[in-house]
Structure formats: C-alpha cells, structure tokens
Write a structure and sequence with these properties.
The chain has ten helices and 14 strands. The chain is an alpha/beta fold. It has one domain: Glycosidases (TIM Barrel, Alpha-Beta Barrel), CATH 3.20.20. Strand 4 and strand 5 form a beta hairpin. Helix 7 packs parallel to helix 9. The longest helix is centred in the middle third of the chain and has 22 residues. The two termini are about 25 Å apart.
C-alpha cells in the first residue's frame, strides 16, 4: 500500500495431513463404490488484508454484523474469505510514541493474527515488508538494525536469510507456517535501500536486487524442505502498467524460483488502467511466465466520500461507471475486477485493509483511519449491508 498524500502513506492448497482431513480449498466426491475421497481442487483466493484488526480492537473498536458484535475474523470467514494477508515489519519502534506505545505488525502481533486466521479456517499470506516502516514504490527503507551492512552485500544477504528463516521456523514450531509469503511489499524500486539511495531516484541496481531476492527465496525454500510443508513464494509489484518491465528485470537477474506474481491495482492511483487493462496484464504475465500464477495482492474502492475522523483519507476518486461512491458500487467494482482476473487466468484478489475503521487512536499523520471510507464497515463499525464484504460470496 502506498501513501500518496502528505504522509505517503493464498492460501496455497492447505497442508495435507495423513488422516486426509478435509481442508479449505478441497471438495469431496463420491467415486464408484460409494467411498468418499478428498480431492484437491484449485483454489481461487478471495482475500483480505487484516493487519490492522488487533490494533483497532485494542483501540476500542467492536466489529458488528447485522447489528451484533462479532469476531472480525469470523465475519470474514463466514463471508467466504479464504486468505488473510498480514504485513510484518522488522522493528516498528515508531509505535513506541503512539497511543499506548504497543507495537503492531511485529512478530508477536503477526503470530497472534495468523493464529486467528487459521482458527477461523482461512489461509495466510505473510507480507515481509523488510523494513521497520511502510514499504511501497516511494519508500524502501532498510531496517535500522541492518543499516551498518547496507553496502556490504554478503553481510546483508546473511541478515536477510537469517531473518526470514528464523521467522518462518519460529512460526512453524507453533504450527503457524503461512501458506504463502511475499518478498517485500510493492518492490518497484527494489528493497533494503539506504535513505540516501531511496531518495536519489529510480535507478534499480538489478545485480544487488536480484541477489537479495534470491537469498530471501532460498530461505523460504530451505524452511519448506526442513518442514515438509509447501510455502508459495510471491513477488509484489505496484501497478499493472509497471508489471511487465519489472518482471523482465527480475527474470533477467535470475529471480525465477517463485510461484506467484502479485499486483497492486487501485483505480485512484493506477488510472487510466481499467479493469480490462488489468486483466490483459494478468493474461500476458501468465503467458510469458508459464507455470507462474498471477493475482491481485492489493486493491480498494471507496463506498463514501465522507470522513469519520481527523486523518486524511488516501483514496478520493471513483471510476466512471462505478459512480457515485456507494456500498453498491464498491461491491460492483470488486465483482467486475474479480470476474476479469478469473477470466484471464488469475488465481485471486485480496482487498487492502477492509477493517481499518476509525478509532480514537492515531497514525503518524493523524487521529483515526486513512481508509475508513473504503472499508467494508459503516461508521458504526457494522458490515455494510450491500457493500464490499459480500463481493466474496459471489460465484467466480
């Protein structure tokens, strides 16, 4: 997610156990002879980034459906969400001066969120930001702990490998290994940059970038081998119009051992790219990189132009044909996007922060949420009766 105002701001098939317990993404069929057999079928992901939920609840938010309080993870699961995306920051110490000083999206917080998602029967996409702060096309700041080795590539690769390996091994030890991980977040300008290099421009050092990505991926693959559990690896690019040339850069740099190409697509930031244009890119990537899947990792659409707090909102535009902003048009836009992605060979769509409602707490840029007008909840934190939540309940 990129913050563009003043502040800038997959479930791979579930693990198959020896007792053949039925898992989400599988269906039972009755073969000749009458025995019931569990048969795996391809999963189409209908996902939600719920990284803010723990923080919102600590800030006093009570989520509701049909006017009754309900666990938000249960709300999403009951409405056919099958993938929860969660961001992981390295050391988000900037939280220490906010609100009650509690940190979120660090390891302990993410562990709690993964447990909640899996307990509700949903898969997990873990988003390694590889930063202490928001990583996006404008900002890819290296974690402060690694600043001393930012220009020492062998040492930095060692830090990346150990961090990803240790994180996944710790999760696996508690049976919380994610189903998919993404290496970096909206990595259009690379990853793990010094402030000076980050602010200097858009020249990508593909040799450095390629080595860092390959090292990160190797850490995931080694955990796979040791655990015997499949973990899909994804790359993440912001904007369909940038996807093709960036993927060529990855491929030419030897970054080929991945499973999924994830795209961010927001009309407000990626116009004039239409839903059809986005579908064309999905199809082109599928064709060029045979054997690799493509999906939308981030999207969002507003249901109102109103605000409910002091924090400036980050999305302000609606697309022609989906105006005015309304819960119905939010759902329609998502349904049309998902139909197009599925038709063009994509494997899913994930909505960014549909539960980041307004609260008394603050971000670094203001009190409240920068996204409350684009969530799936009204300003009383009740599920919008005809809004985006029910996009996931449709047949695709």
């Amino acid at each position: 997610m990129k913050f563009k105002v003043a502040f800038l701001l997959l479930l791979s098939p579930f693990f198959l156990f020896s007792n053949c317990k039925k898992q989400p993404g599988m269906t039972e069929v009755d073969p000749p002879g009458g025995d019931t057999t569990v048969v795996e079928k391809p999963v189409f992901y209908l996902g939600a980034d719920l990284s803010y939920v723990n923080e919102m609840e600590d800030c006093g938010v009570i989520y509701k459906e049909n006017g009754a309080a309900k666990d938000p993870y249960r709300i999403f699961a009951d409405n056919k969400c099958n993938l929860v995306r969660l961001r992981l920051w390295h050391t988000p110490s900037w939280y220490d001066t906010l609100n009650a000083g509690k940190r979120y999206s660090d390891f302990q917080d993410v562990k709690k969120s993964i447990q909640r998602a899996k307990s509700a029967g949903m898969g997990v996409l873990l988003d390694f930001h590889l930063s202490d702060f928001w990583a996006d096309p404008q900002r890819q700041w290296i974690p402060k702990a690694w600043e001393p080795v930012v220009d020492n590539l062998p040492a930095l690769k060692d830090s990346v490998y150990n961090y990803i390996s240790q994180t996944l091994n710790r999760l696996n030890a508690e049976n919380l290994l994610p189903d998919m991980v993404q290496i970096g977040n909206e990595t259009n300008r690379g990853i793990l940059l010094s402030r000076q290099v980050n602010d200097a421009g858009w020249v990508l050092d593909w040799n450095r970038n390629g080595q860092l990505f390959k090292t990160a991926i190797s850490a995931v693959r080694d955990v796979e081998k040791a655990s015997g559990k499949k973990v899909k690896v994804a790359l993440h690019i912001a904007g369909p119009s940038d996807a093709k040339w960036l993927m060529e850069g990855f491929w030419n740099a030897g970054v080929t051992d991945f499973d999924v190409i994830g795209l961010s697509y927001y009309w407000a930031w990626h116009k004039p790219t239409t839903i059809t244009d986005c579908g064309n890119v999905v199809a082109e990537l599928r064709q060029k990189y045979a054997g690799k899947d493509v999906m939308i990792f981030e999207t969002g659409y507003i249901w109102t132009t109103q605000s409910n707090d002091q924090a400036s909102n980050i999305i302000s535009e609606v697309q022609s044909g989906y105006a005015p902003a309304s819960p119905e048009n939010q759902q329609k836009w998502l349904v049309d996007l998902t139909q197009e992605v599925k038709k063009r060979g994509g494997i899913g769509v994930v909505y960014w922060e549909p539960a980041w409602v307004s609260s008394a707490c603050s971000t670094p840029w203001g009190q409240g949420s920068h996204q409350e007008h684009a969530t799936f909840f009204d300003f009383q934190n009740n599920v919008l009766p005809s809004g985006g939540m029910y996009w996931m309940t449709k047949q695709y």
